[in-house]
UniProtKB/TrEMBL annotation:
This is Beta-secretase 2 S homeolog precursor. One of its GO terms (biological process) is membrane protein ectodomain proteolysis. Disulfide bonds join 216-416, 275-440, 327-376. Keywords: Aspartyl protease, Disulfide bond, Glycoprotein, Hydrolase, Membrane, Protease, Signal, Transmembrane, Transmembrane helix, Zymogen. It comes from Xenopus laevis (African clawed frog). InterPro entries: Aspartic_peptidase_A1 (IPR001461), Aspartic_peptidase_AS (IPR001969), BACE (IPR009119), BACE2 (IPR009121), Memapsin-like (IPR033874), PEPTIDASE_A1 (IPR033121), Peptidase_aspartic_dom_sf (IPR021109). Belongs to the peptidase A1 family. Its EC number is 3.4.23.45. One of its GO terms (molecular function) is aspartic-type endopeptidase activity. Glycans are attached at residues 153, 349. Its main location: membrane.
Length: 499
């Protein structure tokens, strides 16, 4: 009996400690002090005729340029919350599923949502905590009406968490006061019964279950001026935001936007790792993560390959680790020294793949400094202990379509992925998949619903066994006491019972 009991305990410890961790959020900008005012670079105004409106009810064109911000501090959208409306800027995050706003004053936010001032607020008396790879918050769940000045017409009743306490979530110099989680209800806290914002929108307005995002920070120094930085198109696809074809990859599981990465190339050379490594323990598309994050093994292979392919051999390790900037004379552009990076994703035709190519302009990122004569850059790729995250570094090159109806994520070259007239992203396909495994995703068994049921059953079993043990331990104890044979030493008691 002893051995099975022990192994059950180990298993239960494993299930108790496995909890959802939402990936890294926006990284704090390392640059402090007064920022030079950069001149605005207005995006090409797309032609009105290109705006699509298949259902005749949504005006996608009104959503073009509805985002502000940058990759370092996040892309955000203006929302009006409550009655009378309180204006808030809300970070757009495809890596989580709660809608939450600052509900009390915080030194890092300019304003907060005061539910007491809203006549339409309904409180639900439930506390909720959400942890991200970076930062966390705790708040109170409620419902209130929300409308979008540059989004879908109308007013919607939405679950809102008012953040009352947070740790490393709001950051200095951010211009947003809340977060809009656009992933699936599976990730909602405290449970999946808290309907996410976009699900409510689809329900209440009957729009197609699809949204798309364009992030326009490519080539802009971070932190930038963040004006007209991108678009979140709710309910469809806006043709003026991309060029060429859209390539789709299946959503392998509906929680994060999890996809299957098949291969990496650096300067045309295959990194040649086992493809399961690229998906350990998951590969996700997350607008709320600043960088392209790679599992340690992949990251190390990638840095080695870039060092070998680049024309600069003497980079110090601190640059790759993200701890130092690399600076060049203002007359020089460093991008010619670096290779292209390609990510191969499985196509919806699973015997094919397509590739996203990042020019160095996307991953060697200009950073504003107070240096007069130098242009400084950071490495836009970092390592990760838990996941491969296709964050803003990649998304800034592409118009990304989250097609929940068809369970797929689409990529097309973004109309704003240009730096000094050069397009900094490419997309190509189809390619064969005979050189990779037919399945690169090793399922984490605890993620499968059936395994959850089994582990919960085992946990209950542990509990019952524990209870029986306690009772068994107590009964003889009492007997002995009755016999005036007091056993005070608990450990000897246990030894007696188990020997
Ligand atoms: C919203 O409704 C108003 C008035 O009905 C209309 O003028 C406007 O074009 C609509 N906007 C969108 C985005 O559908
Ligand atoms: C999928 O791709 C394979 C290999 O290129 C091709 O032979 C097949 O016809 C494609 N299937 C569909 C449904 O397009």
């Amino acid at each position: 009996m002893k051995i099975p009991f022990l192994s059950l305990l180990v298993l239960c410890a494993a299930c108790a400690s496995s909890k959802f961790i939402v990936p890294l959020k926006v990284s704090p900008s390392e640059i402090t002090g007064t920022l030079p005012v950069a001149s605005a670079t207005p995006k090409d105004t797309p032609g009105l005729l290109l705006a699509s409106d298949p259902g005749g009810t949504i005006n996608f064109f009104s959503m073009v340029d509805n985002l502000e911000g940058d990759s370092g501090r996040g892309y955000y959208m203006e929302l009006l919350i409550g009655t009378p409306p309180q204006k808030m800027n809300i970070l757009v995050d495809t890596g989580s599923s709660n809608f939450a706003v600052a509900g009390s004053p915080n030194p890092d936010v300019k304003t907060f949502y005061d539910s007491k001032l809203s006549t339409s607020y309904q409180h639900l008396n439930t506390e909720v905590t959400v942890r991200y790879t970076q930062g966390s918050w705790t708040g109170l769940l409620g419902k209130d009406v929300v409308s979008m000045p540059k989004g879908v017409n109308g007013t919607f009743l939405i679950n809102i968490a008012s953040i009352l306490q947070s740790d490393n979530f709001f950051l200095p110099n951010i211009n947003w006061q809340g977060i809009l989680g656009l992933a699936y209800s599976t990730l909602s806290k405290p449970s999946s019964s808290v309907e996410p914002f976009f699900d409510s929108l689809v329900q209440q307005r009957n729009i197609p279950d699809i949204f798309s995002m364009q992030m326009c920070g490519a080539g802009q120094p971070t932190p930038g001026n963040g004006i007209n930085a991108g678009s979140l198109v709710l309910g469809g696809i806006e043709p003026s935001l991309y060029k060429g074809d859209i390539w789709y990859t299946p959503i392998t599981e509906e929680w994060y936007y999890q996809v299957e990465v098949l291969k990496f190339e650096v300067g045309g050379q295959n990194l040649n790792l086992d493809c399961t490594v690229y998906n350990s323990d998951k590969a996700i598309v997350d607008s709320g993560t600043t960088l392209l994050r790679l599992p340690d093994k992949v990251f190390n292979a990638m840095v080695d390959a870039i060092v070998q392919t680049s024309l600069i051999q003497n980079f110090n390790a601190e640059f790759w680790a993200g701890l130092q900037l690399a600076c060049w004379d203002k007359t020089q552009q460093p991008w010619n020294y670096f290779p292209d990076i390609s990510i191969y994703l499985r196509d919806t035709n699973t015997s094919q793949s397509f590739r996203l190519t990042l020019k160095p302009q996307l991953y060697i990122q200009s950073v504003l400094t107070l240096q007069e004569s130098l242009n400084c850059f950071r490495f836009g790729i970092s390592h990760s202990a838990s996941a491969l995250v296709i964050g803003a570094t990649v998304m800034e090159g592409f118009y990304v379509i989250f097609d929940r109806t068809e369970k797929r994520v689409g990529f097309a070259v973004s109309s704003c992925a240009e730096v000094s007239g050069i397009t900094v992203s490419e997309i190509a396909g189809p390619f064969g998949t005979s050189d990779v495994s037919s399945n690169c995703i090793v399922r984490n068994p605890l993620r499968e619903p059936i395994m959850w049921i089994i582990s919960y059953s085992l946990m209950s079993l542990c509990g019952i066994i524990l209870l029986v043990l306690v009772i068994l331990l107590l009964i003889p104890n009492r007997h002995r006491r009755d016999d005036m044979e007091t056993v005070n030493d608990e450990s000897s008691l246990v030894q007696h019972r188990w020997k």
